[in-house]
Amino acid sequence: MPQRILIIGAGFAGMWGALSAARALDLAGRADGAVEIVVIAPEPFLHIRPRLYENDPASMKAPLSALFAAVGVRFIQGAVEQIDVDAKTVLTRDGAGVGSTLGYDRLVLASGSRLFRPAIPGLAEFAFSVDQTDEAAALEAHLHGLAARPATPARNTVVVAGGGFTGIETVAEMPARLRSILGTDSAVRAIVVEQAPAIGPDLGPGPRPVIDTALDAAGVERRLGVAVVAIDRNGLTLSDGEHIAAETVIWTAGARAQALTAQIPGERDRFGRLHVDRDLRVPGVAGVFATGDVAHAATDDIGNVAAMSCQHAMALGRSAGHNAANDLLGLPLRPYEQIKYVTCLDLGPWGAVYTEGWERAVTLEGKVAKDLKHQINSEWIYPPPADRAAIFQAADPARLVVA
Ligand SMILES: Cc1cc2nc3c(=O)[nH]c(=O)nc-3n(C[C@H](O)[C@H](O)[C@H](O)COP(=O)(O)OP(=O)(O)OC[C@H]3O[C@@H](n4cnc5c(N)ncnc54)[C@H](O)[C@@H]3O)c2cc1C
What we know:
- This protein is of the alpha/beta class.
- The protein has nine helices and 24 strands.
- The protein folds into two domains: 3-114 and 255-339, FAD/NAD(P)-binding domain, CATH 3.50.50; 117-251, FAD/NAD(P)-binding domain.
- The strands form eight sheets. Strands 5-2-1-9-20 form a five-stranded parallel β-sheet.
- It is globular.
- The mean pLDDT is 97.
- The structure holds flavin-adenine dinucleotide (FAD).
- Residues 8-14, 40-42, 49-50, 52-53, 79-80, 110-113, 130-131, 166, 258, 260, 292-293, 308-311, 313 line the site of flavin-adenine dinucleotide.
């Protein structure tokens, strides 16, 4: 029986974790079948979540089967329901509902995050989202369906709840997206609601003037310092009593680590992420690593912590896979570190804004930043080619994507 590195999730962290683990086995001369790398996820596709606010979200996924086959990673289609850290097993269920138990020698939890939906009346029934591919596809179908409805102000209005990173990217796209569906002369409205007194509260003051310029250019209205208190079939109600008539409400506010984190003993942060050490191990839980959006991980020695972002998930994945493999082989581990932090925020037809550092100093804006965003979203975050040498080069945990 081969020893097994089991990776839960085939997102940015899980995919890179598997490729990096394969690289580590190869480097150690141990790609001999004595250790197998297994990835379990509902589909053999990398879902490109950062692009789900764009047109045609159903196409935003990249196949993984050839990639995994090129480096000997075994893929199991299914979802993990239970983790038993004492027995070192997981219970999985496949698409047909058949359950099975799988053991592991090292476990890498990379099951990502989900949009947080608070108990606001009507949210579950009436709000759309761009969090998962099927949800974004449902929004797309709804938007196209609006064209067949009577032309009312409510039909022509989209409200985005949450003025953070995802909410801003989503609302900035909406006027042009609506006009492309309803007609270029349609009187469309796009409104963003943010309960903090300023747009992009977590982005800080640096990029805010650029964001405001772009939203003004797109004609996006802001409702700041008010919360959504109810959503209904015809719109939503704000905490100041205003009711906005809108046939499309998109909820974007907040993310939480995927629920399997609750089955692993350990400290969790306010997003449900497991605290990990610098090697990305869950302290006190033998053989378990956490990575990507499920991990609360220090990026440096001065107190910065990885964001729930693709940028961090890719590097966290490479480190976790490498360390899980080396740990199993008894080789030295490589502490995770990601000193440089950047953000590139899409601002619709106006352009984008690119910032550097945790203070988010603006270094590019407008079209030049938009060109960079396009490159990030169409090249950098996609899997490498299904070629063993190219994969191992890209999967090096020491690789700096943004230097
Ligand atoms: C609209 C939007 C825009 C974004 N924009 C940006 C951006 O511009 N820049 C940026 O850096 N980040 C952005 N992000 C965040 C980024 O997408 C996430 O941080 C990233 O996807 C996290 O990667 P991950 O691998 O940890 O998780 P995910 O990508 O969520 O992958 C999780 C994987 O785990 C699988 N899984 C879940 N549960 C189970 C289970 N029980 N069993 C087995 N498998 C399971 C899933 O199917 C998936 O394969 C955006 C996100 C959204 C939604």
